[in-house]
Amino acid sequence: MQSRNASASLANLLQSCIDNKAYKAGKTIQAQIFRTYQFSNTFLVNRLIELYSKCGHTQAGRRLFDKMPHRNIFSYHAILDSYCKLNDVGNAFEVFDQMPGRNAVSWNLIISMLSRNGLEDKALAGYYAMRECHGIATKLGLNANLYVGNALLGMYMKCVSIEDAVMVFGDLPEHNEVSFTAMMEGLVGADRVDEAFDMFRLMHRERIIDCVSLSSVLSVCSKCEFGVDDDGNEGKRHVMHGAQIHGLLVKVGFLGDLHWNNSLLNMYAKLGCMDCAEILFNSLSQVSVVSWNVMIAGYAKGYHLQRVIECMERMQSCGVEPDEVTCVNMLAACLRSGDIETGLRIFNGMSVPSLASWNAMLSGYSQNGYHREAVMLFSEMQFRKARPDRTTFAIILSSCASMGLLEGGKQIHSALWKAELSMDFHSGLVDTGLKVFKSMQQEYDVEPLSDHYTCIVDTLGRAGRFNEVKEIIEKMPYKDDPIVWEVLLSSCRVHGNVNLARMAADELFRLDSGNSAPYSLLANMYSSLDRWDDVKDVRDIMGRQQVSKEPGYSWV
Fold this sequence. Notes:
One of its GO terms (biological process) is plant organ development. By secondary structure, this protein is mainly α.
C-alpha cells in the first residue's frame, strides 16, 4: 500500500514537472525513483523520458530507455517522439526498427518526421506499410477506438490520402476536437477548403466547440490564404467563412482577449481582407507588437508599400518598438515592390540578421533580377557563419540557373567557401551552383528536394555539361517529376545532345503520354539536325498515342 502511494505521489510530481518543463526537479525525482527501487515501474520511467524529451534532453531520456528492465509500447513512443521532434532520422529509425509492435501512433510519428525532412519517398513507403497496420487494426476492431482512429486520421492526412481519412472518420463511433482538427487541416492542405468548413459546422452541431477547437479553426482559416479574386467570387466565400468564426468568438465572449484578437487579425490578413483587418484593429483597446506586425505583413503581402510605411510610422508614434519580425516584414514589403535600395538599408541595419532576413534579401535580389548580388550576398552569409536552409539553397541555385541565360565575358569576385574566385562569368556561376548543390548534403546535411535538382540540372544543362547532369540524374530520387525532364530536354535541344534528349523524352512519355510538348521539342531538335526520319518517327508515335500538337510549335 505504501509503495502504491509513493508511486502515485511520484507520478503527480512528474506530471507537474512535465507541465512546467522542470528538468532539474525531474532529475531529483529520478534519484528518488532509484532510491526507492521503483525503476522497474515502467509507467514512472516512461514519464521521466517524456519529461526529458520535452525539456530537450533527449540523450538523458535515451540512457534511461536503454537501462529499462521492462519496456512497453509507450516507452518506445516516448523516445521515438523525442527523436522525431529533433528530426533525428537515424536514431528515430533505430528505435522504430527495434519496436516489437508498431501501431498507428508509431507510424504517425515516423511519417511526420520523414515528411518534414523532405524524404517523401521514404514517407510514401511508410504510408503503404501503415495501410497494412490499418488493416490489422480493422481486423482487431481497433479502428473504432477513438485514440487509434485519430492517429490513423493524422497519418492519412499527412500522406494527403483524403478518401482514406474520410473513411476512418466515418468509422469512428464518436469524434473529439482532435478528430475534427486533423480533418480540417488535412482538407485545407488538399485545397478542399469548403469541406474543411463543413467539418467545422458539424463540429459546432456536435457541441465540441471549445478554446482549443476555436483556435484550430482560426488556424485553418489563416492557412487558406485566399484573397478576393477579380470577380469577387471564390475569395469572398472564404472571407465570409472567416466572418462567421469572428461572429462566434463575439458570441462566446472571447474578443476581450488580445490573443484572440491577434488571431482574428492574422486570419483577415492571410485572407487578403485588409479592410476587415483595419476595422478590427482600429476597434481594439489594446494592441501589441504582434498586432502591428500582422497588419504590416498583410499590407506587404498585398504590395501596399506606402501603407506598410504609414503603419510602421504609426506604430513608432504609439511608442511600440519594432522587433525582428517587424524588420523582416518591412524588408519583404520593400523587396516585393522592387525597392531594393530601401530593402538593403533595412537589412544592413540589422546587427545579426535572422535566417528569415537572409532569405528575404536573397529572394528580393533573385526575383528582381539581381542574380550576381544574390550570389555575393550568399558568400557574405557563409562568411558570417549564418546557416542556410532548403529555401536558401533553392534561391541561390535558381539565381545561378538564371545567370546562365546572360552573356558571358564578365568577371565576378566573391568570397565563397573562404576562397577568392575570379573567373569567366558563366562557367564561374555553373561551378558555384554545383558547389552549392553538393554542399547541401556534404556540409549542411540538408536533403535536396525536387526544386533543387531542377535548378542544378538547368544550370549544368545550359552550360552543356551533360556528363555531370547524368551523374546527378542517376542519383536523383525524384524521377517522377516531369519538370526536371522538361528542363533537361530543353537544354539537350539547344546543344544537340540527341541521346540524352531521347532519354528525357522517354521519361516524359512514361509520365504523361498525352503531353505534346516533349514530342514537339524532340521533333524540333531532330529537324534542326536534318534527321527527317527521326522527325517522322516522332510524328508516328504521336499518331499512335493520339496526341494533338498544341498550336505555337513549329516542326521545321
